[in-house]
Write a structure and sequence with these properties.
The chain is α+β, with helices and mostly antiparallel strands. The chain contains 9 helices and 4 strands. A two-stranded antiparallel sheet has the order 1-2. The chain has a two-stranded antiparallel sheet with strand order 3-4. It comes from Corynebacterium heidelbergense.
Length: 180
């Protein structure tokens, strides 16, 4: 028999639109964070064991309900129904620079690419793949988002292929001048 707390955590998982810590569930249900985490692990294990179309994932102590990775093509086909636009080559190049050099400014990205990238950066931000991540010297810093990781199907940036040594050092980029 499923406990009341488990049933309620399943309901909360369904309505949470971003990963949350076990304390979030614990405070809503008046249970300990450890009890909430145990229930979350139990749900995740059961979903995995029965091959559910849903999975509960934990990353950095935060939990969220997702559609099963193996079903992503089917889910995307229904949700996007041909409306998805692929990223342009310029957007992919810009995204790669941000991913490997984050946090970085627009001018640093432009210096690596050799062209102005303001419009591409705005597009990537609108799609939720990059976001402002502070400032340095009056310039906005940009980093990739959790959506970027989800779209690539990876848990962290550490899983990206080791290409960073092929890119110029940030100090070299800054020495070449500020592009805007």
């Amino acid at each position: 028999m499923i406990s009341v707390a488990r049933s309620r955590i399943e309901s909360l998982l369904l309505v949470c639109d971003e990963p949350v810590p076990p304390t979030h569930f614990a405070s809503a249900l008046d249970i300990t964070a450890q009890e909430a985490e145990d229930i979350l692990r139990e749900i995740a294990e059961e979903f995995d064991a029965r091959g559910s179309g849903l999975e509960v994932r934990e990353r950095d102590g935060l939990w969220r309900l997702y559609t099963r990775q193996a079903n992503s093509e089917t889910v995307e086909a229904l949700l996007l129904d041909g409306t998805q636009q692929k990223l342009s080559r310029a957007a992919l190049e810009t995204l790669a620079v941000v991913a490997y050099r984050q946090p970085c400014t627009r001018s640093q990205v432009a210096a690596v690419r050799g062209v102005n990238c303001d419009g591409v950066m705005r597009t990537l931000a609108l799609r939720g793949l990059i976001a402002e991540d502070g400032e340095t010297g009056g310039a906005h810093l940009y980093s990739t988002t959790d959506l970027f990781l989800e779209q690539l199907g990876i848990e962290s940036l550490a899983e990206l292929p080791d290409l960073a040594p092929l890119l110029p050092e940030v100090e070299t980029i800054e020495a070449e001048g500020d592009w805007g």
